[in-house]
Amino acid sequence: MNAPLTLAAAVPTLPEPSVSAAAIPVPARSIIRFERVAKTFPARRSHAAVHALSDITLDVPEGAILGVIGRSGAGKSTLIRLVNGLEKPSGGRVLVDDVDIGALDEAALRKERRSIGMIFQHFNLLARRTAFDNVALPLEIAGVPRAEIKARVEPLLDLVGLSDKRDRYPAELSGGQKQRVGIARALATKPRVLLSDEATSALDPETTEQILALLRRVNAELNLTVLLITHEMAVIKAVADKVAVIDGGRIVEDGATYEVFARPRHPTTRSFLAALTAKSLPRRVAERLSGEPREGRDQAVLRIVFTGQHAQDPVLSRVSRLLSVDVNIIQAQVDEIAGTPFGVIVVSVPGDAPTVSAVINAVERLNLTAEVLGYV
Ligand SMILES: Nc1ncnc2c1ncn2[C@@H]1O[C@H](COP(=O)(O)OP(=O)(O)OP(=O)(O)O)[C@@H](O)[C@H]1O
């Protein structure tokens, strides 16, 4: 027998998104601004020129956490390296707090970098320095007197929960602890923005969660603007107020994280979200799921997203009746972005191409999004 077909029956109560939570407050002021930025690495010997970034226009509002997600080679690292001047744009401008980073000479850039903290996937700590001395390093370079350094570093170690490890060397710390040192070091010069380059990619899921919670905390407590790059939608979901999806050196979609999760428009965004949903499917389905419709796989698995106003709609029974197809519910859950709930329902329908596209069209006519996760 088929599962119940109304969303209201399938999914626990889904409240209307509250206006304050759904509409992320976007301060007028951008602290990082990409203006029609291009970056081309010139041809060298046998290598052709690489157009790593094209026509990037993006604003990071003050106090926000903006996540840039893209696959390997999409241009994420190049994008973030333009912000601290490790690369110069071939076209356009990158502004940090209204300063054109690409136009600075070396001395001015060194000074400006004090207001741009950065954390890295592999932490980049100095092995021969203790946790305290790693955090102190940027202050020593800036010529801050020793007593002041101590007064600055100790509260930072406290903030990241490492006061008891102050005299430990990196080799004596776990990955999560090393990243905490990295965060404290990035905060030492009281930056206005923090750049995060895949900062949780080398960490296990539990430690990732703790580090992301710490980023959220420093963002809120210090009103620090964060620009992070990642290839994982789970990271975006956990911390980002806003998201930009980058593909082939271009931003293909951006917006408030809730909006992008609830109504993804670009195929790249949809496939990142599908991969995230696929991870949480029941094992019996996940193990059989294949990307291609093959003989013997006669059911397509679809992910349908709905927001508050649709919770009571009998969407699935309507689609089922309209098209005379069986719609089976595999999983229904309420997901949440920054406190705003939205529903994700995974269904299976007959897997032949005409039926699948008819179901997707019918669902989209109801202003919901649907995409194929695979075939079982
Ligand atoms: N210094 C360089 N010289 C030439 N090409 C480069 C250079 N740095 C990056 N590229 C190229 O620019 C493109 C974007 O690279 P980038 O490192 O920004 O991607 P990414 O999204 O960060 O990838 P990953 O997730 O694998 O680190 C790639 O094609 C890369 O090979």
Give the low-pLDDT segments.
1-8
Sheet-strand content, in percent, reads 25-35%
- CATH hierarchy: architecture of the largest domain: 3-Layer(aba) Sandwich
Mean pLDDT figure: 89
The total beta strand count reads 14
CATH class category of the largest domain: Alpha Beta
At the fold tier of CATH, the topology name of the largest domain is Rossmann fold
Overview of the structural elements:
The chain is 35% helix and 27% strand. It is elongated, with a radius of gyration of 23 Å. It starts with 6 loop residues before the first helix and ends with a strand. It is built from 14 helices and 14 strands. A hairpin with a 2-residue loop joins strand 12 (328-337) and strand 13. The protein has 376 residues and is an alpha/beta fold. It has 2 domains: 7-18 and 266-375, ACT domain (Alpha-Beta Plaits, 2-Layer Sandwich); 25-240, 3-Layer(aba) Sandwich (Rossmann fold), CATH 3.40.50.300. The longest helix has 18 residues, at 205-222. The strands form 3 sheets. The protein has a 6-stranded mixed β-sheet with strand order 6-7-8-3-9-10, with helices on both faces. A 4-stranded antiparallel β-sheet has the order 2-1-4-5, covered by helices on one side. The chain has a 4-stranded antiparallel β-sheet with strand order 12-13-11-14. The structure holds adenosine-5'-triphosphate (ATP).
Concise overview:
The chain has 376 residues and is an alpha/beta fold. The protein is built from 14 helices and 14 strands.
